[in-house]
Specification:
The protein is mainly α. The chain is built from 13 helices and no strands. The protein is globular and about 50 Å long. It starts with a helix and ends with a helix.
């Protein structure tokens, strides 16, 4: 099978930044405190501002095709819950690590890989279905992930209620960025140019800094003990999940071919980098989340090329 240049053009630079971070971490040119500080910058500042900018500027259609979004996210959330049960109950992982496993199996790398891939493959005509899907992934998944992690952190892993947990969810920087961005979008408020430029500069640093921190962190964590779970995560995210979404799109929906193609390609994206960021943020399953991102992205060079060759739009 031929590896499509459009896939290589996006994926190879990603691996380059991860590899550079790994070398810097391996040679201890940055110590663990510096890498941790970089991860906190990404999680607490850069990614929230990136999400804020995306939510504030995305153009929503007058009529939203809810069946498109409902079908995709029903599959995604269904996979999350099924894989959470698989990791926690059957594989006997701690709930915090099982949630990282489940998140990786169902959460795609939309911003660093999905946006350029879809626009390269289908052009500007794919902007609406693309950004509709991008706009909803974080608001749906982040509260669920934060809820589980905060419950474990506060010693209430078997309880899904509690004021401290809910407070942590609503105070989360990601959700604040998303909420403020949506609010500005709805009222059609235009920010002053200097503020927009500042947000844009910081937002553009989010992805490369996250990839660099991922590589540097992986140099400090042995991955031999998680390879089996990482392999299973990759099989589910790169293979089974897009297969189920394709079946739903082909036989359960009456959508235009372009919308179906975007839906399937987005499902085929590798494990999202936020899997690693959540693992790093809560110091749980870091080797699992980080290795899953790297291996899944490598495998996606082949799987996405195959899927793109099968999509006729």
């Amino acid at each position: 099978m031929i590896i499509l240049p459009a896939v290589l053009d996006v994926v190879v630079p990603v691996f380059g930044v991860v590899a550079l971070g790994y070398l810097v971490g391996a040679f201890r040119w940055l110590d663990s405190a510096a890498v941790r500080g970089l991860s906190l910058y990404v999680f607490n500042i850069a990614i929230p501002l990136l999400l804020f900018q995306a939510m504030a500027t995305v153009t929503l259609p007058e009529v939203i095709p809810w069946r498109y979004l409902l079908a995709y996210y029903s599959c995604a959330l269904g996979f999350f819950l099924a894989c959470l049960g698989l990791g926690w109950r059957l594989m006997k992982q701690p709930l915090s690590e099982a949630s990282v496993f489940a998140f990786g199996c169902s959460y795609g790398n939309f911003i660093p890989l999905g946006i350029p891939l879809v626009l390269t493959a289908f052009g500007d005509r794919a902007t609406t279905p693309l950004f509709l899907m991008v706009a909803l992934q974080a608001p749906l998944f982040f509260p669920l992930m934060i809820f589980l992690q905060e419950s474990v952190r506060r010693g209430s892993g078997h309880s899904t209620s509690g004021h401290p947990v809910l407070k942590s969810i609503f105070a989360n920087q990601y959700l604040i960025g998303i909420g403020l961005g949506i609010a500005l979008n709805l009222v059609d408020f235009a920010m002053p140019a200097p503020i927009t430029d500042i947000i844009d500069l910081i937002g553009r640093s989010a992805v490369p800094c996250a990839l660099f921190a991922l590589g540097a962190s992986l140099s400090s964590y042995p991955i031999g003990g998680v390879l089996g779970r990482v392999a299973l995560m990759v099989v589910i995210k790169n293979g089974l999940f897009p297969l189920v979404v394709w079946w739903v799109a082909a036989y359960g929906l009456d959508l235009a071919p372009l919308w179906q193609a975007v839906m399937v390609l987005m499902a085929a994206l590798p494990v999202g980098i936020n899997t690693y960021l959540f693992a790093e943020r809560y110091q749980s399953g870091v080797a699992l989340g980080g290795s899953g991102v790297v291996l899944s992205t490598a495998v996606s060079i082949v799987t996405i090329s195959f899927i793109l060759s099968m999509l006729a739009v």
